[in-house]
Amino acid sequence: MNILVTGGAGFIGSYLTESLIREGNSVTVIDDLSTGKHDNLSALNNNKNFRFFEGSILDYKLMLKLVTECDVIYHLAAAVGVKFIVENPLQSLITNVRGTEIVLELAHIFKKKVFIASSSEVYGKNGKDPFKETDDRILGSAMIPRWGYAFSKGFDEFLAIGYYRSTSLPVVIGRLFNICGPRQSSSYGMVIPRFIQQALNNEPMTVYGDGTQVRSFTFIGDTIEAIKALMNNPKAEGGIFNIGSTESVRIIDLAVKIKELSASTSEIVFIPYIQAYGKNSEDMFYRIPDISKINELLGFTPQIKLEEMLKIIINECRSR
Ligand code: UDP
């Protein structure tokens, strides 16, 4: 099959691309390298089933060519990371809204099945434990850039479902919950790569707020299997699925665990949110998925537990 992966040079996109190629597909990646990196795809240099286009999903002419040439689309190109979004609010919104509009419009015209990568951000500050796909989404003020990102991802979901309902375009939406693994950059604010880098350098580990906020982290390998299985199952079409782990951890406990696993002498320091993200910021205090929907359809449960994934990432960072 000929597959188009938008954002394929990013952390998740590059693993997806490698996996699709291993299965015998030909993959074309489009990435503007705003947060993705060539290096992420270095294993595919000279692979005859791989093509790379450095460009934007906002480039309609290029996207028209790439969509006509493919059989299915995995749309992962988006602004990523709270830090990046807070620092680049306009670019993030345009990429997420206009970019997805272009992908869906062309997919509709040329009748190509699409996976839309959404985010657990869309639940906002609902605070419910755990989040089901049908739960209300509670988002904050337009003055807080983070909620713009959550709105834009929510808009992408509405648009995809709109195409599905009105035109029968086969779409599948995955809400990703804090995916992590080797190769994830620490530059865009994600907590695990940041803590690991800080711990390995014996630098202060920066816990934002009081560290009692709770997350669950999902290993990249489990995530890729879930995304592909959803796209390969016709019953997933027109559906929204949480993709995540139900193993919860407080951020302070995560810092302590990473410090211990990396035998670090780092001090754990508490940074007020205002200092971390500026004055217009808010965090979610609880974010754990209910994964019964994807489990019932695919039998999906993440295989890699938090401690194991931390060890894998620490080892990879050490060897780098
Ligand atoms: N966080 C932290 N220190 C850091 C980076 C992040 O304490 O250096 C916190 C952040 O405030 C959030 C959690 O870790 O509560 C997860 O942050 P991340 O940006 O990885 O993902 P989010 O779940 O916020 O999208």
What do you see in this structure?
It is a single chain. The chain is built from eleven helices and 14 strands. Helices cover 41% and strands 18% of the residues. It has a domain at 2-177 and 220-244 and 290-297: Rossmann fold (3-Layer(aba) Sandwich). The longest helix has 23 residues, at 145-167. The two termini are 34 Å apart. Uridine-5'-diphosphate (UDP) is lined by residues 82, 178, 189-191, 194, 206-208, 213, 215, 251, 283, 287.
List the helices and strands and how they pair.
Layout (H helix, E strand, L loop, with lengths): L1 E5 L4 H12 L3 E6 L18 E5 L5 H10 L2 E4 L6 H6 L1 H22 L2 E7 L25 H23 L3 E6 L2 E2 L10 H10 L4 E4 L5 E3 L1 E2 H12 L7 E5 L4 E3 H11 L6 E4 L1 H5 L8 E2 L4 H7 L7 H14 L1
Parallel strand pairs: 1-2, 1-4, 2-3, 4-5, 5-6, 6-11, 7-10, 8-13, 9-14
Antiparallel strand pairs: 9-12
Helix pairs in contact: 1-7, 2-4, 4-5, 6-8, 6-11
This protein binds uridine-5'-diphosphate (UDP).
The site of uridine-5'-diphosphate has 14 residues, from helix 6 and strand 8.
Which key terms come to mind for this protein?
320 residues, alpha/beta, Rossmann fold, seven-stranded parallel sheet, three-stranded mixed sheet, globular, binds uridine-5'-diphosphate
What is the CATH H-level superfamily of the domain at 2-177 and 220-244 and 290-297? NAD(P)-binding Rossmann-like Domain
What order do the helices and strands follow? Answer: EHEEHEHHEHEEHEEEHEEHEHEHH
The gross shape turns out to be globular
For the terminal residues, how far apart are their CA atoms?
Answer: 34 Å
Fraction of residues in helix: 40-55%
Give the integer mean of the pLDDT values. 96
Q: Approximately what portion of the residues adopt beta-strand conformation?
A: 15-25%
**Quick one: CATH class of the domain at 2-177 and 220-244 and 290-297?**
Alpha Beta
Give the neighbour order of strands across the main sheet.
3-2-1-4-5-6-11
**How many individual β-strands?**
14
